[in-house]
Amino acid sequence: MRPIETEGGLFEAKNPSKWRNSLKPDPEVDDAWEDLEIIRVFPITEAEVRRLGKDPELLVKFPQEYGLGDNAYMAQIDMFHQIHCLNLLRHLAWAEYNRNGTAKKPFSDLHWIHVSHCTDILMQNLMCNGNLDIITFNWVETQSNPFPDFAVNHQCRDFDAIYEWQDKHSVPKEWGRNVTRPAGAKQIPISEEYYRIYGIEKPQVSTTP
């Protein structure tokens, strides 16, 4: 943990965060976000899987040809998933902006499910952490009512150290993208919504012994 004061001003500071848009969308801000939301994966052992309360038989393992051995399960840091979810909501806030200049297509059901998922993930995380830090109020020029001071002193994990650890321990990006289900792998059921959204018929499971 380390002390960090949040830059919580309503208006942009002299040295604004590189993840904050000003009065219009900014490609450099988008690049900063996208750099963080490239979720990297790394190997953990069966013992570590069990300490997480997971069943190793239901989890993805890295293929043998990656040279990580037979005890390498795919994992990622949840914080970066949460950053991805927040970035999705950020893009919705700047919905009129399209980096390649083309018109946006109507949103699909899957898009809104994605929004709902990301919002829920963030909500659960906020409720889980239950931040008890205090926000005070000031009298501010031009304002007749108390104005909240969002510059709160937090005890924070060392983000740079976490990012560096992930960069050091992660396997190449394409390794995570190119893993496909091997024959005989145990599968868990997918949501009924999947079949509805894609308009495909749910396969019938044979009950014949």
Descriptors:
6 strands; 36% helix; alpha+beta; 7 helices; 209 residues; UstYa-like; two-stranded antiparallel sheet
How would you describe this structure to a colleague?
The mean pLDDT is 81. Helix 3 (78-93) packs across helix 4 (109-129). The chain has one domain (16-132, 159-198). The protein is globular, with a radius of gyration of 22 Å. With 209 residues, it is of the alpha+beta class. The termini are far apart. It has a two-stranded antiparallel ribbon with strand order 1-6. It has a two-stranded antiparallel ribbon with strand order 2-3. The chain is built from 7 helices and 6 strands; from the N terminus they run E-H-E-H-E-H-H-E-E-E-H-H-H. Helices cover 36% and strands 10% of the residues. A hairpin with an 8-residue loop joins strand 4 (136-138) and strand 5. The longest helix has 21 residues, at 109-129. The chain has helices spanning 27-36, 46-51, 78-93, 109-129, 159-169, 173-177, 192-198; strands spanning 2-5, 42-44, 73-75, 136-138, 147-149, 153-156.
